Amino acid sequence: MKDNKGMTLIVKTVIKFLAPIVILFGVYIILHGHLTPGGGFPGGVVVASAFILLTLAYGTEVAEKKMKRSLAALLESTGALFFLILAVLGIFLGGWFFSNFLPKGEPLKLLSAGFIPLANIAIGLKVGGGIFAVFLALVIFRVAGEGGEEQK
Amino acid sequence: MNLLPLFIAIPLGTAFVIVLLGKMREIYSDILASIAALILAILPFILILSLDKGEVLVYSMGKWLPPQGINLVLDGLSRLMLIIINVVGFLAIVYSVSYMKKFTAKSKYYGLFMLMLTGMNGVVLTGDFFNLFVFAEIAAISSYALVAFGVEAEELEASFKYMVMGSIATILILFSIGLLYGLTGSLNMADVGRTIQGNGSTLLSFSMVLFLTGFGIKAAMIPFHAWLPDAHPSAPAPVSAMLSGVLIKALGVYALMRIFFNVFGFNLQLSWVFMILGLLSIFGGGLLALRQDDLKRLLAYSSISQMGFIILGLGCGNYWGILGALFHLLNHSSFKSLLFLNSGAVEYSVGTRKLDKMGGLSKVMPVTGATSTIASLSISGIPPFNGFWSKLFIIIGLVQANHFVLAVLAILASVLTLAYYLRMQRNTFFGKLKKELEKIKEAPLSMCFSMIVLAVVCVGLGIFFYPVMKVVLEPAVEVLQEGIKYSSLILGG
After folding, report:
1. Nearest to B62 among A80, A84, A98 (CB)
2. Which of A15, A44, B348, B408 has the most CB atoms at less than 10 Å from its CB?
3. Crossing angle between the packed helical segments B386-400 and B319-350, to the nearest 10 degrees
4. Helix, strand, coil percentages in chain B from 3-state DSSP, rounded to 5
C-alpha cells in the first residue's frame, strides 16, 4: 500500500496483521455461540469491527475492495432471510414456528443444541453485514458533506 | 392454527426479498409487495371465518409454553386490529405503485413499508411485554425512515423530531417493562397481570405512569402530540395514511388498551385520566386544525382530535363507550387513510398542499373530489356515514355513565370537526376553479382504486354497522370488558 490515504505506516502494518485475527475471533464467537458467552450478535459486531479497522487505517477505497457496500447489504438481507427460513422450517418439520427440528446432539460439542448454531450464523451474517453497511453509509455521508462545503 | 406466525413471517420475508431483488426492474417489486399485502389482507378474514366468535387462540413460539416462552394471542381485539392494519396496508401499497414513481429506490420503500407492517402485526398479536417493545421499535424505526423518505430539509427535520420524541417514548416504555420485570419476575402479560392483582405498590403506579406517557406519545395525545403535525404531513401520502390511519392506533391506543384494561385492570382514576386526556386532545387538535393552511397539516391535527374521541370513549369504560371507541378506531382508520390518500392525489396532480392555492378541483378530479367529500362527511359524523354511529355510541356511553357535561362537549367538538372539514372542502374541491388549474388530470388508476375502495368501506360501515358490530366489534368489546380475566384465559385455571 504505497498510497497516502488513511493513517500512518505503523497503524497500517498493525492492522494488516490484526484484521484477519479479529475476523477469526469473530467467527469463533459466532460458531461457539451455544457453548461459550457470545453468539451471533457479538460475533457479527467483532467481524464488522475488523472491516471498520481496515476502513479507518487504509481509507474507504481499499476497504471497499475487500468488502463492497452492496456485498454487505446482500449479506445482511441473506442473514435475515436465512433466520426467517429456519423459523418457518420449524412449522413444517417441528410443528411450531421457531421450534427446533434438528437433533440436539451431545452437550458441549460443537455440533449440538439443534438449530441454535445455524441461527447464530444467520444472526452473525445479518449483524456483521448490517453494522458495516451502516458504518460505510455514515462515512460516505460525512465525505459528501465535506464535498458540499468545498463547493462554497 | 399455524396462520398466526404468518402475519409476522410474510411481511418480514417479503421485506428482505424485495431489498435483495432491488436491482431488478421496478415492476417486480411492485408485484411482489402487492401480492404479499393482498395475502395479508385476506388472512384476517380467514381467521374470522374459521374461529368461533369469542374464541381465544394462544400460539406458543417454538413449543415453549407461557409464561416462560413467548406466545402470540389472537382474541377479538387483536382480530379487529389485524383487519385494520392489513387492509389499509394493502390499499396503501396499491396506491404506492403509481404514487411512489416520482421517488427513487422504490424497492427500499417497499422493504421499509413491509417492516412497518411486521412491527404492527407483531404488536397486536404478541402476549409478551418485551416482544411488544421489540415489535413496536421495528414499526417505529421503519416509520422514522419512511417519514424522511423524500430527504428534503423539511422532511429530515420532521423525521428527526419524530425520532427524538419516539425514542423518549421508547425509553419510558422500556424502563416501565424493566420495573414490572423486577416486581414480578415475568415478562408474559398474562402472568404479570395475575401476579400484580391485589398488590398495589408505589412502583407499580410509577410503571403505569411511564406506560401512559410512553404510549401516550406514540398515540399523539395532547400534551404529547408535538411530533405528529410535522411527521405525518412530511411523509409520502400512502405512508401518512398508514401512520395516521393505523400506526398511532396499533402502537399507541392498542397498547394502552391491552395494558390498562387487561394487565393492570381499569379503575376510576384511570377512567378520569383517559377522559381528560381525550377531551384535551379533541379540543386542542380541533382548534389547531381550524387555522391550518396546509392540507395535510390540517388532516394531521384532525387525527389528534379524533384520537381524543377514541380515548374519551375508552375512558368512559362502559359497554357503549368502549364499543363507540373501537368503532371510531375502525372508522377513523378508513376515513383518515382515505383523506390522506386524497391529499396525496391532489399533491400528485396539482403539486401543492396549500389550501389557498386550490379550489374547484372536483370538476377536474371527480374521483378524488367525490371520495374526499364522502370521507369528510364521515369524519364529521353526518348520518348515515360511519362516523355518525361511532360518535353516537360514544355519546350514549357518556350519558349512561352520567357524564352529561362531557357528552355535550363531545357534541360541540363534533360540530368543530364539521367546521374545519367544511373549510377544507370549500377551499379545495368546491368553489371556483382557478384558471391555471384547468389542465389538471385525475390521478392514475391504482391511486383511484384505493380511494374508491376506502370510500365504499366508509359508506358500507355506515349502512351495515349492525353486522359489523356483531361480528367484529363485540368480541373486541368483550375482551376489554372482561378486563383482568385475560390472564386466566391465556394461562388457564
Report:
1. A98
2. A44
3. 150
4. 80, 5, 20
Distance CA B316, CA A1 (A): 73
DSSP state, residue B492: -
User: Is B1 a member of any domain?
Assistant: no
Report the DSSP pairing between strands B71-74 and B57-60. antiparallel
Closest of B304, B454, B465 to residue B385, by C-alpha:
B465
* pLDDT of res. B100: 86
Q: Where are the domains of chain A?
A: 9-151
Quick one: pLDDT at residue A150? Answer: 40
ipTM: 0.83
Check whether A1 has a pLDDT greater than 70: no
Cα angle for residues B406, B315, B484 (degrees, 5° grid): 155
Task: State how far the Cα of B27 lies from the Cα of B33, in Å rounded to an integer.
Answer: 10
CB A90 to CB B60 under 8 A? no
Task: Identify whether B354 is part of a domain.
Answer: yes
CA–CA distance, B86 with B325 (Å, rounded to integer): 20
Which residues in chain B are contacts of A97 at CB distance < 8 A?
Answer: 2, 4-5, 9, 59, 61-62
Helix residue ranges per DSSP H, B224-318: 228-234, 237-242, 255-257, 268-290, 295-316
What residues make up the domain containing B454?
Answer: 6-491
In terms of pLDDT, which residue wins out, B144 or B433? B144
Give the pLDDT confidence of A37-79 residue by residue, as tens digits: 888 899 999 999 988 888 888 877 777 777 777 788 888 888 8
Q: How many domains does chain B have?
A: 1
Q: Identify the sign of the CA torsion B200, B201, B203, B209.
A: positive
The tens digit of pLDDT for each residue in A96-152 reads: 888 777 777 777 777 777 888 888 888 998 898 889 888 888 877 665 555 544 433
